[in-house]
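User: Design a sequence. Structure:
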């Protein structure tokens, strides 16, 4: 099977620097697993890797869609697998939610209901909170994987259930859960307090770099209902522009949602995938992990 290296972990955990180092040493290319960096113009809020950070390493699935275009786990699966299968260099997937990674790396086959773009129109009348309550009651396993504000995924899960008569979590469970590649997953981690502090500093830096103005321009051109505006760092600004909260509250909400997302990432990866965790801020731990990756790559 073809080898695929994955560098996983929450935002601000050191994935970018470690992945570029690995790509340089192992003659690899990087595939972004991020569902927001795929969009053009969404630069600051997505923490998009800068040109100088890339160090000349090819990066795929970044800046390929406009903010009003749809992008889904099925989209990522198809695009990422196509890159992996044609690449002569070592593919390195960086970031991404656990579901995106699993869909790409495992024998995850989407049902026709999952692949359809349309959703049940009857569900449109419900608020996000009401949709989440419906899903939590009918498919609590799937509800654990979706944020209450991720309206698109809530609608899709409920639509799949209505059209197929089966819970989405049951469809997923019927897969054989076999890797279709020779995969090594390195997970960047650190103490919770340290991670929370790094997330806080990262968000503060985004604000200093002009996040508010970036979001304002995007909202004027695309509106907050555009798919690209559903990500953390963007959706929180809608109430502010409507005069319903303060700038400080927006910033705190971004930090809070980032911490919550990091916790969900850890939970998913710990329970669903064979991750080799290491502290990317510890030089010794990073070097030990890199040596382990090298041994795997050479076998």
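Assistant: Done.
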């Amino acid at each position: 099977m073809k080898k695929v290296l994955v560098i996983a972990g929450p935002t601000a955990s050191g994935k970018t620097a470690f992945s570029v180092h690995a790509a340089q040493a192992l003659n690899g290319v990087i595939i972004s697993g991020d569902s927001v960096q795929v969009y053009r113009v969404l630069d600051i809020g997505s923490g998009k890797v800068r040109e100088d950070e890339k160090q000349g390493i090819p990066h795929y699935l970044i800046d390929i869609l406009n903010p009003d275009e749809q992008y889904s786990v099925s989209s990522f699966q198809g695009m990422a697998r196509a890159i992996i299968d044609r690449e002569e260099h070592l593919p390195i997937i960086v970031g991404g939610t656990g579901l995106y990674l699993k869909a790409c790396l495992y024998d995850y086959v989407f049902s026709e209901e999952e692949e359809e773009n349309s959703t049940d129109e009857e569900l449109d009348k419900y608020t996000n909170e009401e949709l989440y309550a419906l899903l939590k009651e009918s498919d609590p396993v799937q509800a654990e994987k979706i944020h209450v504000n991720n309206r698109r995924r809530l609608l899709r899960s409920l639509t799949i259930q209505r059209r197929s008569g089966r819970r989405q979590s049951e469809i997923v469970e019927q897969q054989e859960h076999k890797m279709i590649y020779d995969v090594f997953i390195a997970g960047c981690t650190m103490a919770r307090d340290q991670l929370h502090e790094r997330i806080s500093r990262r968000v503060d830096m985004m604000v200093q770099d002009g996040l508010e103005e970036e979001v304002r321009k995007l909202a004027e051109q695309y509106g907050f209902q555009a798919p690209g505006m559903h990500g953390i760092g963007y959706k929180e600004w809608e109430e502010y522009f409507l005069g319903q909260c303060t700038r400080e509250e927006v910033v705190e909400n971004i930090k809070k949602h980032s911490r919550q997302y990091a916790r969900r990432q850890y939970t998913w990866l710990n329970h669903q995938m064979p991750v080799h965790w290491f502290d990317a801020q510890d030089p010794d731990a990073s070097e030990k992990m890199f040596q382990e990756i090298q041994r795997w790559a050479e076998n």
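The chain has two domains: 3-109+175-298, 111-174. The mean pLDDT is 91.
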